[in-house]
Structure formats: structure tokens, C-alpha cells
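Quick one, C-alpha cells below. Sequence please?
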């Protein structure tokens, strides 16, 4: 096992109708699903993503893309309404990555009201913040609430650990989830994103072991991923032969003393279903009922392979 053994993805309408069985086959242990953005926009794939992950037993959290320039209460009401439609196993998340052109204080005031309002309405479920260290440190003043919430940090790097916003570092808090890769990874199709969806996908890690993850969220083990779809069968084209003599008897068994059931004429085409014999070589030309003709007799060939 690697240090980060619990991996997942986060998705929105930009991944379109993702194949969740394919995502599960890639070994994901969780996902975060976008529910909404601003005060009016429900994510177009929210319902489908929640239904498909429920069907497959994939633990999920739900996130709202917060727009500080929009009515915070309308955003809160939209988010709470959507997350109440479905049970989910991980956190509800506020995604803060824009200030909408507001001042630091106005951005902070809107976010604080949203967070406190949502946290009260979803008790006992908890709220988590998604943000990047660069944005949070530059666009928000030190707060009295953010560091108390769990952190899903966005820091795209190959380093062994992410950089934290000073808000959490100052209070000796760490991250719960880490979005370590997103734009430019070209892994969309690998995780089931169809043609027409994003070529990239956001990759995440949980800060701890699989045992800790299951204990934290009181989870049962994930089901075995479904097997890949079977390869299409190879189509076998049975050889075809042309009758050489004027006619051949058709027997119900490969024996000259068997019952004659039919006759095939010169240049008629027959198709091989089975073959038997040595000196007397017989081929079966039908399975139901069994119909046999001589391929060769006393060294004389009676059928010739048809050239297509």
C-alpha cells in the first residue's frame, strides 16, 4: 500500500454522464459530487451522479460552489434542499475559490454567514471547506470559523503533502482530503468520462489509512468492482465446399450403411459443421437433424473448398 491508499475523484457536469462502474474499477474509494453553484444553478448531473453512486455503494460527499457576490442565504437554501434529497456518507462541502470582485471583508462576511447557516441546518452532519492555499491566504482575512472546519485542500503538486492555508497551519490543523491533480492530467476517460466530457478529472486523497477512512465514516467495505464487459465473440465462418460429382447422398450418420435422408447436386454449396473419418472422410453439413456427406471415398475427393 502507498501512503495515500484511499483515493477518489470529484465530479460535476463537466464530466458529463460518467461511467461509475469504470471509475470503481480504477480503485476509487470515495467521490465528491457537485450539487450546485451560486443561488440558482443546480448541477445538471447531480441527480444522476447521486443515484449511480448509491447503486454501486460508493461513499460520497456533496459540494456547493459558493459565489460571494450572490445572496448567501439563497445559496444556503439551495444547497441544503439538494443535500436533503439524498443520504450521503462524507461531508457537505463549501467550495470557495472566487471573491466575485468583492473586498476581503465582504467575501469573508458572505462566506461566514453561509457556513454558519448551513452547519446549523445539516446537524449532525458536518461541513467542510474546499479551497486552495493561494486563494484563501490572499483573499480572506484571518477568521474565527474556517479553521474549525475540516479542510479539503486543492494543491496540484507531485509533492508528498500539500501546502496548507495559514488559517489551518496557525491552529496546527491538517487536511482531511487533498485534491492533488486536476487540469492537464488527461485521465478523464480512464475514470469513465465519456467522449464530450472533460479530458481531465480531479483526483483526491484521504489523509489516512483505509481502516481510518472506514472508521471515520462508519463504512462497510466497498463491493468488488464489476467485471469489465466481455470481449465480443470472434465470429467463425465455417468452410464452404462445392459438390464435385453429379450428386451425393446425404446420410443421417457418417456411414455408407446409414439411412439416406437427402441428396445434394453438382456445384451445390455445403457448409462444414463437423468432420470425421480417415479413409472415408465425412463432413456434417447440418446439426438439426444430423446430415452427413462423404468428403472423400477410396482416395477420390468428392468436395472442393469454395474460394470466396
Amino acid at each position: 500500500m502507498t501512503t495515500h491508499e484511499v483515493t477518489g475523484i470529484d465530479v460535476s457536469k463537466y464530466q458529463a454522464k460518467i461511467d461509475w462502474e469504470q471509475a470503481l474499477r480504477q480503485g476509487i474509494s470515495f467521490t465528491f459530487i457537485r450539487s450546485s453553484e451560486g443561488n440558482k444553478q443546480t448541477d445538471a448531473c447531480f441527480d444522476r451522479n447521486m443515484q449511480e453512486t448509491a447503486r454501486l455503494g460508493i461513499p460520497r460527499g456533496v459540494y456547493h460552489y459558493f459565489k460571494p457576490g450572490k445572496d448567501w442565504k439563497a445559496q444556503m437554501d439551495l444547497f441544503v434542499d439538494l443535500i436533503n434529497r439524498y443520504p450521503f456518507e462524507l461531508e457537505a462541502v463549501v467550495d470557495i475559490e472566487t471573491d466575485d470582485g468583492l473586498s476581503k471583508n465582504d467575501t469573508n462576511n458572505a462566506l461566514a454567514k453561509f457556513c454558519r447557516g448551513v452547519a446549523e441546518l445539516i446537524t449532525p452532519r458536518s461541513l467542510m471547506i474546499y479551497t486552495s492555499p493561494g486563494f484563501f491566504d490572499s483573499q480572506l482575512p484571518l477568521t474565527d470559523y474556517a479553521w474549525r472546519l475540516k479542510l479539503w485542500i486543492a494543491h496540484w503538486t507531485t509533492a508528498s503533502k500539500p501546502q496548507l492555508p495559514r488559517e489551518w497551519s496557525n491552529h496546527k490543523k491538517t487536511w482531511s482530503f487533498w485534491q492533488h491533480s486536476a487540469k492537464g492530467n488527461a485521465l478523464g476517460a480512464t475514470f469513465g468520462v465519456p467522449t464530450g466530457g472533460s479530458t481531465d478529472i480531479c483526483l483526491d486523497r484521504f489523509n489516512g489509512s483505509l481502516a481510518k477512512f472506514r472508521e471515520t465514516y462508519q463504512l462497510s467495505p466497498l463491493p468488488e468492482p464489476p467485471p469489465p464487459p466481455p470481449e465480443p465473440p470472434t465470429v467463425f465462418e465455417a468452410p464452404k465446399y462445392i459438390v464435385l460429382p453429379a450428386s451425393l447422398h446425404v446420410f443421417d450418420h457418417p456411414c455408407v450403411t446409414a439411412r439416406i435422408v437427402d441428396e445434394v447436386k453438382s456445384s451445390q454449396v455445403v457448409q462444414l459443421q463437423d468432420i470425421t473419418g480417415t479413409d472415408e472422410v465425412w463432413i456434417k453439413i447440418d446439426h438439426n437433424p444430423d446430415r452427413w456427406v462423404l468428403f472423400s471415398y477410396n482416395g477420390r475427393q468428392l468436395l472442393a473448398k469454395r474460394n470466396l
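The CA atoms of residues 61 and 110 lie 23 Å apart. Residues 240-305 form a domain with the SH3 type barrels. fold (CATH 2.30.30).
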